[in-house]
Fold this protein.
Amino acid sequence: MAVTNRKGGTGKTTTAVNLSACLAELGNKVLLIDLDPQGNATISCGIPMSDEDGGSIALLTTDKTTRELSCVGPVANLTVVPSGSALAAAEMELNRKKDWERILRTKLKAVTDDYILIDTPPAMGPLTLNALVAADGVIVPLQCDYLSLEGLREFASNLNRVRANLNPNLSLIGLIKTIYDERPLLTRHVAAELDRYFGAKVFSTAVPRNVRLAEAPSYGLPITLHASSSTGAGAYRQLARELQERLN
Ligand code: ADP
Ligand code: MG
């Protein structure tokens, strides 16, 4: 599953990390791949950023296997392929390689985990494209503001282009309302528009704005360990169950 949205700050990384942790808590074997040079998912898992010989950088640029490049995650059943700033340079050179859009897909073929989540950068560049070609489905975290709706139109056409040219099996798993505060009228208006256009594709679980979710990365812990009884932990646990049902 690729966790994507071209906009930054929509809760991609928070969702990738905490959904992974909650799916792992449910007993699934989960692999989280950090494909953003900022390494926010890596840091959020308490793992050091990798240099150019490790993590997702080496995954895309060398013959090393996913297993060789993955680290023990912060909870049982969760392993992580970390990232680092060298991934930005690797991205610029990626399209000189043969079949560069399929590198990640090829690397993930041998992985036997129940779920693979890929955190992506806020851009529709070679890294995100590799994630969309490797994935069976896409998860889109978004904030309920006007500009998020604008971006979705373009996102839908990008998705169609990837399906037509590179990955016909790519499905839209669902949209997640994140950093959600239902008090403002605008939020309710945008949420209603989302439901109208995307219907059942919108997860019924929304992730509320919760300060515990924002502070968890500074401890290098997913929300289930940092604040297990917080509303944020409850939301991601519920989301993990909803996702499991949706995929079964
Ligand atoms: P992205 O990966 O899309 O750029 P992040 O997951 O990094 O977005 O989230 C952007 C910022 O908002 C981060 O500082 C994060 O800690 C914070 N954040 C994300 N989700 C929530 C939430 N539900 N409540 C409060 N803060 C959140
Ligand atoms: Mg991010």
